[in-house]
């Protein structure tokens, strides 16, 4: 029988595959439905190949609220490689602040003029209209836990900020974070929507509400 050579999926694998496709269809259905919010966390899914790991809803809200308070009335906030915080800030649309997102993943270009393509390998390759020291606070989450990545991202942060920095990275980067940005570890422990092997922490250089 010729069919003997055709690989067959086990019933368990087939069921798992059908469940995956059903979930995907449901997500797409949500995205096209009237009530869909393009700024909600998960509207753009994580791409692990880009080292993307979204914060939990609670963590993203906490960091967004901290950024708003730190920026002050009419403040400007820059999110560097921190799209889930950007999304939470946009959910607060109408409040008295402005925000932009610097991100390598071009899927975030759906957010229009607030999206700025950013590659940490070229830390100062930024648009001319992005003036130095023009943001009241910069919140950043470098994509990789390496000194090189942090050092280059730090160049961008120092260029953008008027002074305040909120950095999210691994606990193992504490010494390098202090060296490159003069930030200290906070008591607040950020959580991700999926559990990560590396312990994450927040670092600031000002009196924050995260302690």
Automatic annotation (TrEMBL):
The organism of origin for this protein: Pandion haliaetus (Osprey)
Domain of life, source organism: Eukaryota
Primary location group: cytoplasm
Molecular function GO labels: nucleic acid binding; protein-lysine N-methyltransferase activity
Classification of source organism: Eukaryota, Metazoa, Chordata, Craniata, Vertebrata
Keywords per UniProt: Cytoplasm, Methyltransferase, Transferase
Transmembrane segments: none
Name of protein: EFMT1 methyltransferase
Reaction equations catalysed: L-lysyl-[protein] + 3 S-adenosyl-L-methionine = N(6),N(6),N(6)-trimethyl-L-lysyl-[protein] + 3 S-adenosyl-L-homocysteine + 3 H(+)
Keyword Protein biosynthesis carried by entry: no
One GO term of the biological process aspect: methylation
Subcellular location: Cytoplasm
Cellular compartments per GO CC: cytoplasm
Pfam families: N6-adenineMlase (PF10237)
SUPFAM superfamilies: S-adenosyl-L-methionine-dependent methyltransferases
Keyword S-adenosyl-L-methionine: no
């Amino acid at each position: 029988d010729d069919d003997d050579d055709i690989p067959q999926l086990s019933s368990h694998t087939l069921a798992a595959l059908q469940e995956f496709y059903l979930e995907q269809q449901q997500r797409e259905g949500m995205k096209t439905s009237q009530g869909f919010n393009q700024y909600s966390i998960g509207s753009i899914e994580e791409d692990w190949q880009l080292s993307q790991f979204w914060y939990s809803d609670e963590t993203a809200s906490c960091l967004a609220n901290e950024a708003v308070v730190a920026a002050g009335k009419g403040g400007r906030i820059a999110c560097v490689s921190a799209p889930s915080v950007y999304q939470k800030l946009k959910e607060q649309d109408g409040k008295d602040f402005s925000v932009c997102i610097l991100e390598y993943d071009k899927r975030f270009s759906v957010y229009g003029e607030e999206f700025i393509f950013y590659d940490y390998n070229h830390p100062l390759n930024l648009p001319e209209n992005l003036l130095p020291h023009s943001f009241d606070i910069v919140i950043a989450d470098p994509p990789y836990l390496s000194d090189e990545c942090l050092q280059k991202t730090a160049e961008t942060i120092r260029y953008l900020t008027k002074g305040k920095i909120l950095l999210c990275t691994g606990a193992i980067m504490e010494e390098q974070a202090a060296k490159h940005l003069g930030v200290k570890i906070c008591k607040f422990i950020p959580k991700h929507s999926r559990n990560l092997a590396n312990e994450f922490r927040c670092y600031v250089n000002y009196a924050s509400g995260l302690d």
